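Onboarding guide, step 5: your first structure request.
Type a short instruction followed by the sequence, for example:

Predict the 3D structure of this protein.
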Amino acid sequence: MSNIVIVGASRGLGRALAEGIVGPSDRAWLLSPHEPAPRAGAEWVPADLGDGRGYRESIAAAVASEPVHTLIYNSGIWETERFDRTSSPDLDRIVEVSLTGAIQVVHRLHDNVAAGRGNIVLIGSTCGLDNEGATSVAYTSAKFGLRGAAHALRTHFRPAGVRVTVVNPGSMATDVPLGDPGEALARHDGRRIPVDDVLAVVRCVLALSPAACVKEIDLPATRDTDV
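The system replies with structure tokens like these:
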């Protein structure tokens, strides 16, 4: 039995992670603004990471003093307009959801995570890699910063035996649910990664012994030419 926290669990990759990681004997807390699909043993913690910092106390109250064996942070939003046409509040929200929220959640659940002696998995993006070529300034900055946060958190948590991993997927077929990778490939002409592939990578990380720590995994789509 594991205690699992997944932030951003209602749609797309987050929903796939909840479906594929949370087992029948596990206990899970799923933090998201929209209610995720019901799962046995899972509790929805409603929260919008871009709307103040109330999520800190919401998730802390839900988890209470339980150890957390797996913490997955999957939240991220990006610019829908060109950088110079994006409002200042929108830039703040992008960084809050895509980077600051991860730091704040780990900070608030610090003792739970240390007690669980397990894994923190941060879902980044190939946009956060060096010289990737993205023009989404706030999102790219946030995902680049997430990698830096992971390096520092890994060092911080090493004495507690907690492993910290960043997974950086490229373009994903998040519009196709878990379990139908063939449809994902067909719908996007093989240009986007099925969520099944990202789930398989995360499962691999979580299945390793406590002696092994995977620092970072880059998972671009095969046809991505700028990474």
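Each response can be followed by summary notes, for example: The chain has a mean pLDDT of 94.
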